[in-house]
Amino acid sequence: MPSEYSVLSRRPLTVTVADVRAEIPYRPAAVWVENLDRLNVLAAVLATPEHREVLADAVLAYPGAAARLREESLRILAEATGMKWWEAGRLISTSVGAEVLGRLVLAGADPWNRSIGEWTAAVFALCVKGQDEKGRMRFEFSLSLPPPGYEDEWDDGEDPDVVAGQLAQMLGTG
Amino acid sequence: MGDEPSKYFTIQVKGEAMRFTPIPDDEAKMVATLVAMDAGQNKIFKGLMAVLRRASSEEQWERLSDRVVSLDVRLEDIMNVFKRLTERTRKDAETTGGLDVASTELSPVDAE
User: Fold this and answer.
1) Residue A118 touches chain B, beta carbons under 8 Å
2) Which of the given ranges, A5-19, A160-174, B96-110, has the highest pLDDT on average?
3) Which residues in chain A have Cβ-Cβ distances shorter than 8 Å to B43?
4) How far is A100 from chain B (nearest CA, A)?
5) Is B36 close to A57, i.e. CB distance below 8 A?
6) Could you tell me where the DSSP H helices lie in B1-112?
7) Distance from CA of A147 to the nearest CA of B (A)
8) Does A135 touch chain B (CB under 8 A)?
């Protein structure tokens, strides 16, 4: 069961695709980063070779298994980072830019020795460092915007009126 | 057998013209998923053949599978047919609004 402490976890993750369960062993942040361009199949790519073959069998045998694999891939990214999958994806993309990666490396963060949860948290911290309240709110808002087609998942549990008020304040129209 | 399909695409398979029905989106995604996840070649081959079987008439399927067994048609040829067929299906859907073949690519995750 994921919790707010999952970002520090080195435990394996489990995915279920068409009644097939596969275990994803702990992988350092660098492995997640280098496979971000295969987000649709991330769970299979991170699985052991044996479990990857089991997942391939499921994709072959069951209609809809490919879509389920995508859902599970997005879910484990969210679970491992403790944030929405698109937020994690954006922070991971940001982390490979020369300036951000350079700052992280100079600060001693090694993606081969950190979990993906720790890595995305470090990128987030770097992005908001030195920002005033307005700048931080703007960054958090742009990070939280879901990609097209995922608007329904944008449920932050906050009162829409409160958010609208904060936005208006941020934009100077309140 | 079901109703006669109303649409076919003719594609050359190593010198022989063959007719295939459009590839449904979920089947295109199934093959794309196997390729993206680095599944074994035999599994990708099985996926491709399953898709082409459903897109072929019985007579054509027998002919195509005979050519595969005799190694006249290989995995790369089958993959090439699949790519051309999905491309034709996609273009057809764009122009006619017929079959909905959505992109199998992920929406880009922008940096900031």
Assistant:
1) no
2) A5-19
3) 53, 56-57, 60
4) 11
5) no
6) 25-36, 41-54, 58-69, 75-96
7) 7
8) no
Q: Other CB atoms closer than 10 Å to residue B92's CB: what's the count?
A: 16
pLDDT at residue number A152: 74
Name every chain A residue with its beta carbon within 8 A of the beta carbon of B106.
Answer: 39-40
Average pLDDT over every residue of B65-75: 92
% of chain A exceeding 90 in pLDDT: 76
Whole-number Å distance between alpha carbons of A160 and A138? 17
* Res B4 pLDDT > 70: no
Scan for tokens 């295109």, then name that residue: B28
Could you count the other beta carbons within 10 Å of the beta carbon of residue B54?
13
Provide the pLDDT confidence category of residue B27 given band limits of 50, 70 and 90.
Answer: very high
| All residues at 6 or more sequence positions from A71 whose CB lies less than 8 Å from its CB, including other chains | none
Q: CA distances (Å), B35 to each of A15, A38, B77, B87, B104, in order?
A: 19, 11, 15, 16, 12
> Are B107 and B33 spatial neighbours (Cβ–Cβ below 8 Å)?
no
| pLDDT over threshold 90, residue B90 | no
Chain centre to alpha carbon of residue A24? 15
The pLDDT value given to residue A103: 96
User: ipTM of this model?
Assistant: 0.77
Coarse DSSP helix, strand, coil percentages of chain A, rounded to the nearest 5 percent: 65, 5, 30
